[in-house]
Amino acid sequence: IETAGTGPELLSKMRSEGSFSGRALDAFKTASGCYRLAWPRLKLTELQVMVDQDMFVGYGATQDDGRLLVQLSSGGKQMRVTGTLAQLVVE
Fold first, then answer.
1. What does the alpha-carbon distance between residue 68 and residue 83 come to, in Å, rounded to a whole number?
2. Under 8 Å CB-to-CB from 72, ≥6 apart: which residues?
3. Which of 44, 36, 53, 37 is nearest to 72 (CA)?
4. pLDDT exceeds 80 at position 29
5. What is the pLDDT of residue 27?
6. How far apart are CA 30 and CA 41, in angstroms?
7. What is the pLDDT of residue 91?
8. Close Cβ partners of 20 (under 8 Å, ≥ 6 residues apart)
9. In angstroms, rounded to a whole number, what is the distance separating the alpha carbons of residues 84 and 89?
């Protein structure tokens, strides 16, 4: 994480990038990918999400309204995950 300044300026200049992985998440067996944060924008790439026996791949980003939109596919199956970072909804 990199940033500079004090007070509100500290958050507005925050930058971070890296990778993540997780297991036994609410709707997903596993999830992994890369992220780039340039506050308040979050971009997700190289996403791989296991749901039951299906591996979904895709990408995501925060929208103008601050909500996260993730689009994933596995063969002919499509999945969208939307919401705030605190409360995502799988469709």
1. 5
2. 47, 49, 56, 57, 58, 78, 79, 80, 81
3. 44
4. yes
5. 80
6. 24
7. 67
8. 31, 32, 33, 34, 35
9. 9
